[in-house]
Every structure is written in structure tokens, then in C-alpha cells.
Amino acid sequence: MNFKELAENLGLEEEEYLELIELFIETGMSDLNNLRSAIEGGSAEKAVRAAHSLKGAAINLGFIELSEIAKEIEEKARNDRLETTAEAAQALQEKLDILVDFVRR
């Protein structure tokens, strides 16, 4: 992952971009916890909100793959298909974990 290039694409210095990524990780983990709770509790509305938040933040930072997974979950939740979102939520967790490992090296 080339943070310098991603930062330049957004017109930011790499250091500023890394600060945004740290914030994204914090809020992303919170959103992911909310998403999992919503899935377990059967709340499509809460799942839509959490997935939408993740989707928007990820795309704004250039994390296309993360955004696409969140978009898939959001669409399934909007169609009240929460039972099909657990695998995608796990994929989101794995992508966030990779990002955390990469940033904190």
C-alpha cells in the first residue's frame, strides 16, 4: 500500500494522511462493532448506518476494496438480508486488520 501516493491523490501530505488513517481505524473498528451488533440483533437499519459510514470513510481515503465490501453489506441490509452479511463483515475485519498492521509497522 503506497500511502504517499494515496495522500498525493487527495492533495495531502503523507503525515496528514496517516493521521486520517489512524482516525479511520478508530472509527472503522467502532462502526464494525456496531455492524456486528446490528447483524446479531437483526437490526437492518443499524447495519445500514454502520456499513454506510464505513463505505464513505473508506472511499474518501482511497480504500476501494474496503468500500466495496461495506457497500455490499449496506445493500444487503437495505434489502433485509442480514443473514447473508456475516461473511462480508468478517472480510471487512480482515481488511481493517491488514491496514492496522501495515500502518503500525
Layout of helices and strands:
Blueprint: H1 3-9, H2 14-41, H3 44-60, H4 64-78, H5 86-103
Helix pairs in contact: 1-2, 2-3, 2-5, 3-4, 4-5
Describe the fold and architecture.
- The chain has one domain (3-103): HPT domain (Four Helix Bundle (Hemerythrin (Met), subunit A)).
- Helices cover 81% and strands 0% of the residues.
- The chain contains 5 helices and no strands.
- α1 crosses α2 (14-41), α2 (14-41) runs antiparallel to α3 (44-60) and α3 (44-60) runs antiparallel to α4 (64-78).
- The mean pLDDT is 93.
Short description:
The chain has 5 helices and no strands.
Going by CATH, what is the homologous superfamily?
HPT domain
Averaging pLDDT over every residue, what do you get? 93
Shape: elongated
State the domain count: 1
H/E element string?
HHHHH
Structural class: mainly alpha
Beta strand %: under 5%
**CATH level 1 name:** Mainly Alpha
* Largest sheet geometry: none
Number of helices: 5
Radius of gyration: 14 Å
N/C terminus separation:
12 Å
Key terms for this structure?
105 residues, mainly alpha, Four Helix Bundle (Hemerythrin (Met), subunit A), 0% strand
